[in-house]
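INFO batch 0412 | record 1 of 1 | parsing
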Amino acid sequence: MKVSIDPFAGFCFGVERAIEIADDELKQNNKLYCLGEIVHNEVEIHRLENAGLSTIDSKELHLSLDSKVLFRAHGEPPSTYEKALKNEIKIIDATCPIVLKFQQKVKKAWDEMKLVNGQIVIFGKANHPEVIGLNGQTDNNAILVEDKKDLEKIDPNLPVRLFVQTTKSKNEYDKIVTLIMQKLKSTDHMVPDFKYYNTICRQVSQRIPKLIKFCLENEVIIFISGKNSSNGSQLFSVCKSENNKSYFISNENDIKPDWFIATKSVGISGATSTPVWLMKKIADQISNY
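INFO prediction complete | emitting tokens
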């Protein structure tokens, strides 16, 4: 049985950078706090915890912490920086440069929209840390859209600037753009100023066609991801639609040997939050069946 690892799977640039920053700091001090989960992968978090990483939430930023606090790749709203500064917290900022530029675009658009009573719309998961950070650039005044029913919140008579969470799919985004256009054109008034920005991470969007090809090249697909990874859920749905023998696992304990009966080829893939070392470990385990 041939077992191969998806060459395009593994940490995205932002997550890899944040992990490297955390590893470097832990090598020097053996202790580091992280505001929220550094990555949506339980196995990788456990590895870092063993090295001295402690995950905290925003409520703990008022404490007199005895070590630095890392801001993860997802980014934070301005209020978090203000709180850290107020409480004299030493910050290590690992915000992904792509997310940081995204935040700056949203802030600029919000400053413009305030002058014309316009609206900032963010298409993504409302409770996702990236979206929370983006909404913070608008003083939490953005209209958050998770699906088409949320489009009711948009006033069709006012200017609109649309942004999209970096890990959303292009197809979903295109549908939302079309629905907003239809909503705006359905009014009897002049069509308001509507601009939309494809802020999906290229590394994420380019993975889907490559993942489809990988799924078709293997009889069985083992997709590894943290259960709370938005990107993982999205990419696994792609696997399942292309190859019915696709299985979602978080670690080696989830594997069932009967998945590989009379199988000649197995493909191992994962989310942008899945470490390569974990994929290799599971590939080795499956090779022994």
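INFO post-check: Residues 106 and 137 are 6 Å apart (CA to CA).
INFO record closed
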